[in-house]
Amino acid sequence: MKKKWVVSAKRADFKGIGEKYGIDQVVARIIRNRDVVEEKEIEQYLRGNRQDFHSPYLLKDMNKTVEILTEKINGQKPIRVIGDYDIDGVCATYILYEGLSTCGAKVDIEIPDRIKDGYGVNEALVRAAFDEGIDTIITCDNGIAASAELKIAKDLGMTVIVTDHHEVPYYIEETGEKRYILPQVDAIVNHKQQDCPYPFKELCGAAVAYKVITAMYEQFHIDSSELNLLLAFAGFATVGDVMELQGENRILVKEGLKELHQISNIGMLSLIKVCGLEKAQIAAYHIGFVLGPCLNASGRLDTAKKALKLLTTKDFAQAAMIANELKMLNESRKEMTDEGVTKAIEQVEHTSLSEDRVLVIYLPDCHESIAGIIAGRIREKYYKPVFVLTKSEEGVKGSGRSIEGYSMYEEMTKVKHIFTKFGGHPMAAGLSLEEENVEVFRKEINENCTLDEETLTEKIVIDVPMPLSYITEPLIEQLNILEPFGKGNEKPVFADKNIAIISACKIGKQKNMLRLNLQNEQGAKMEAMMFRNCEDFELFLQEKYGEAEVEKIYRGEPNHIRIAITYYPSINEFRGNRKKQVTILGWQ
């Protein structure tokens, strides 16, 4: 797979910004690279807090939603929250349930089963709610695309409120104009509506739920400190649902992490413990790669109700038991994913798939819930848009993951006649089709593809070409103010060239990591770690310099190897000793 290194060359008065805000010019440059330009934006990026949250009442229909819910709570009408089975849906459901309960609501919760029900509210869930005497349905993280299903609820005389963050469905008229399809319900809280004045358009479903409860607590005169627990879950879901960590989202996560560091929720505490973490140490990374996947595994391989039970239980023993189950489910999910990735790579490497610009991989025996994860891993390896399809009871289901420059949803609309169902956005999508159309889909999606060599070359954007000799402890400490890192606020990438490898050794139980001692052309020495792709790195060195030269670095002997690296600096603290080191991200 080709990779092209490019240096971000966005201009600004870095010296002036550094002096004004008391930060290193390197930090000023990184902030500019994240398109944070205006003084107000820089101030908010560096020092933003919950005072900078937008008012929930800027969301269209918020007043109406508060009025309806207040009336239902005062009349003790049964309310049912219908969520979704992923991390965002689980957190959003918990936020609405906990928040409405605090307001005195007679409320219960329902989450669809991924395999039996599929995504979002459906007719069976609506009719079950009606049969059980539910007066009001409030959706979260779903509902905006469920016009037909929610019409049934309205026809049955139920009150319906939709809270969601997904794109509003549309069709394109012959004139080329988009015609949006909104469900005909009592209130819709979704900032993606065309006429919603809310200034920030990237909230996740749990953050929208948090906004609803913020407004409800105001209405019921509940102390705002009661929102702290819910803020932790809104921030958790924002990271877990891979939302853009910019603007209000970045503050949501920053403030949410503070609340997570002192969380009292028994279920979350049990999950943190079983994952071997300390709550005070949790960063966005741990949500994205340790805790979040455990909550997600519940909805993937079992039922998301288990994850919800973890968050709502008040029993320590039960919480510990469920947390252990979720961790084991996630371990099982990892094994299944690795197996699926191996099979997918075999298909790409040993069939005509390798010639396609859009990869359509059919793994009939793969569990449909992990198709998206496998698609993401294959996209990383080949840097191409990827659809992974699996066999289900109703035909074939699939998930897609895209690359920059290829809008998955728009490309799918060009071949929509093939699908029985599809939806998504530019970077990810879901679909259903008949098994006989798998090859038709592969052929047509590629025939319509306009991706060129340039777009199919992954660009590694270097924030700052910075010699190792410039790295200081104060600079490393300052880089912490850029956190939390994630989509839209990626960890900065630094680079240095003409680096000599003084020595190297393989470490770890499987000897699959490398510790290296480096020296740059200015003579600065630095310890470096490489945690991933070590075999590829060694192969690269052998092909470029020969096995004899590579052997020398493992013996710590003088050699002719010189490389350019991309890296991130950190401080390694062990038994009271602190030293600077870098993590190698890539090489040339």
What does this structure look like?
There is one protein chain. By secondary structure, the chain is of the alpha/beta class. It folds into three domains: 3-10 and 459-587, OB fold (Dihydrolipoamide Acetyltransferase, E2P), CATH 2.40.50.460; 52-224, Alpha-Beta Complex (inorganic pyrophosphatase (n-terminal core)), CATH 3.90.1640.30; 351-454, Roll (Diaminopimelate Epimerase, Chain A, domain 1). The protein contains 20 helices and 20 strands. The chain has helices at 14-21, 25-33, 39-47, 62-74, 87-102, 123-131, 147-155, 205-219, 228-240, 247-260, 266-274, 284-301, 304-312, 316-350, 371-382, 408-413, 438-447, 473-479, 534-545, 547-555, and strands at 3-7, 79-82, 107-110, 136-140, 159-163, 170-172, 178-180, 187-189, 359-362, 386-392, 395-401, 419-425, 428-433, 458-462, 464-465, 494-507, 513-519, 525-530, 562-574, 577-587. The protein has a five-stranded parallel beta sheet, with helices on both faces. The protein has a five-stranded mixed beta sheet with strand order 9-10-11-13-12. Strands 16-17-18-20-19 form a five-stranded mixed barrel. Strand 19 (562-574) and strand 20 (577-587) form a beta hairpin. The longest helix is centred in the middle third of the chain and has 35 residues, at 316-350. The protein starts with a strand and ends with a strand.
